[in-house]
Amino acid sequence: MNAAGRQARDSELIQYATEIKVRAERRCGELLSVMEKRDGGDAMKARSNPSTEVPPTLAEIGLTRDQSSRYQQLAAMPGRQLRDCRVRLAGIAPQRNENVRKGL
Question: Model pTM?
């Protein structure tokens, strides 16, 4: 019984951690969507005015283009649709744990 309790808590922890991750990714997407985009710049303007502030690249922030795209898609997703996804994912996690225990 104690082992079953630990396994049940593990799926709850996985679900909780996944929700935190999705919230963080969504917030990152919100920040990316309002951030000034880097457009390659005008070389002549940059040479004549060295104090021109250039927004950071995705690589400088530590993100890939795929991550940036996915996070911005999460941010654009309506709250209700995101909640529906969470409910579906919550049902999947316990099933995966059962399959692992059964050796599937």
Answer: 0.62
Q: How far apart are CA 26 and CA 72, in angstroms?
A: 7
Instruction: Give the phi and the psi of residue 88 in degrees, each rounded to 5.
Output: -65, -40
Alpha-helical (H) ranges within 1-78 are 2-34, 43-48, 58-61, 65-76
Q: Do the beta carbons of residue 15 and residue 90 sit within 8 Å? A: yes
Residues of the chain with pLDDT under 70: 1-9, 39-52, 86-104
pLDDT of residue 19: 85
In one-letter notation, the amino acid at residue 35 is M
Residue (of 75, 85, 91) closest to 23 by Cα position: 75
